[in-house]
Amino acid sequence: MTTAEGGHAEADALLDALASAFTAPDGRPVPVDRRPLTPDRLAGLHAGDGTGILVPDDAQLAELAPGAAAALVVLDGASGTALVAHDPVGRGHLVAAEAVAAATGGLRRTVAALRTEAAVIDALQSVGRRLTAQLDIDSLVQDATDAATTAVGAAFGAFFYNLVNRFGESYTLYTLSGVPREAFSRFPMPRNTLVFAPTFDGEGTVRSDDITADRRFGHNAPYHGMPEGHLPVRSYLAVSVISPSNGEVLGGFFFGHPEPGRFTGRHEVLAEGIAGYSAIALDNARLYERERNFARELSRSMLPEAPPVPGLELITRYLPAATGPKIGGDWFDVISLGTGATAFVIGDVVGHGVPAATVMGQVRTAIRSYALLGLAPSEVLRHVATLLDGLAEPTFVTCFYAVHAAGEELVYASAGHLPALLRHADGTIDLLGEAVAQPLGVGHEFPERTAAFPVGADLLLYTDGLVESRTRDVTRGMEWLVAAVAGLPRPLTPEACDDLVEALTGGDNDDDIALVYVHHGGAETT
Question: Which SUPFAM superfamilies match (predicted)?
């Protein structure tokens, strides 16, 4: 017999026993009908906590079975069964109901308690999953404050938390829930008073039925209590948020209610649980933000200022990823060569974050060094490929390298990079370097090509963040780019360049972007 079958058999046995307890005043058995009850019908009977046996009163009996003499309702969670007798009966069924209730009352209370605790655990896990999935600190702390304030039934809640800026200075921010921010805007940040110190020092949870009567309250100048106009607080609950990785106190939750005695031990457990999840989430968010900032600054520090080139107009851009951790591998360079020529470089290191930014710095420096030796584009890329072979960790890099000498010609080589766009004066567009060779770190031969670059022409070099995203493949992105470039004004202004990026990414690029735009304006252009 399966567990489900066993449960049905026990329920049937209980119903049979209770049905047999319906007897006439002289002790004779009377007929009993069994009627399944839906949750809606049970709600109409005011079925209480959904467990045990209900003895309908006269009104409930009339609603359940008009004309019936007596009934019992056996409850089983959201459903139930009514035992209904139409003949006159004695008290046998009532005695049986009392006996069953007495025998199962303790069990029902235990089950009810377990269900309540399970609901608390489910609620905590739900909040925890939501919090630990976030990496944006502002959203995270507001979500945590809202969730904790609701969970403990506070009139309002606040979360004071500490951050360290890029200069190493610590500062405190806060979020509020239940009241507008203006409610606290004219009050100073809380200090380590006797009331607040245990929370900010991580000594433990503080719960008071009436904080105004607490021995720790009201000892500090200038207010000696709550400042005038402060929201009324009687019930008080405060929980520290402590980093699980290093034990640092990241901040604290503070909850208040104008009525005394509103917070219980269960509220304390809920607040501490949410504080624990918040600490994990804050740790993750801070580590993510730290690496993201480091990679961003490392990338920016390695990117050059494009030098002025007679006869050419240059616009360069580097945009870190607007969302996600994808930052660090893209770069551009504009190199004035000793021969009077100019080299234009765009590249992308596979991967993201600090490792990609580090490799990017090495590759950019190597390309610049080989370029200044006067090597041809194919030779520059071949030497860099050999350099990458010596790195401890294998990696590969896409790169487009072009040289413009005085005149109207480009000499270029590509290492697996997306094709450059060459827009002629008549508006037609050529793709340069498409599928010419493998990336650096994979291939070692990079054929050179030559293209006309006359006065009035434009050259656009870019990385894949401009044309590829989670919602658009690179082929479709290239089609959009070609169409967008065809409609650009000539010569391109910095504002129009920014508009191009915005149009292609919607301002939500999930990868970093580097680009170089060159307009051949003629000898008179500087």
Answer: GAF domain-like, PP2C-like
